Amino acid sequence: MLHCFIIDDSEIVRKYTRLIFESLGFRVSEADSPIAAIERLGSEAPDYILLDWRMPGSNSIEFLGKLRALQLSVRPYIIYLVTENDPLEIQRALTHGADNFLLKPYNRQIVEMKLQEIRTAA
């Protein structure tokens, strides 16, 4: 079973995203901050990490570097969650370790299409 780890400060977004990924057969973990995520990622090996681009008190771009520096048993595929289609911000994220991005709001169909795009490219 594939494992998805959601990092977003919004409980509503985490719950909604959890429902989507669970309906697609994923095991889902979540954290409300990068600090909480780092603590848990040492003992978990997600296949996918969904990272919100703006969270209070954190810099998601810096956090991408920290994520990539972790010695995880599996190299997770990182999807950067954005609320604005800002090409410069998306490029910064991709340069700093994100593998792809997903524009909010999204639904199950959009997530399925993104996962298919990822699988096809692999």
The side-by-side strand order for the widest beta sheet comes to 2-1-3-4-5
Total beta strands? 5
H and E order: EHEHEHEHEH
Per the CATH scheme, the topology name is Rossmann fold
Q: Please, what is the CATH homologous superfamily?
A: Response regulator
Helix content: 40-55%
Describe the fold and architecture.
With 122 residues, this protein is α/β, with parallel strands linked by helices. It has a single domain, classed as Rossmann fold. Helix content is 44%, strand content 20%. It has a 5-stranded parallel sheet with strand order 2-1-3-4-5, sandwiched between helices. The model has no long low-confidence stretch (mean pLDDT 94). Keywords: Phosphoprotein, Transcription, Transcription regulation. This is Two-component system, chemotaxis family, response regulator CheY. It holds the Pfam family Response_reg. One of its GO terms (biological process) is phosphorelay signal transduction system. InterPro entries: Bact_response_regulator (IPR050595), CheY-like_superfamily (IPR011006), Sig_transdc_resp-reg_receiver (IPR001789).
Relevant terms:
122 residues, alpha/beta, Rossmann fold, five-stranded parallel beta sheet, 5 helices, globular
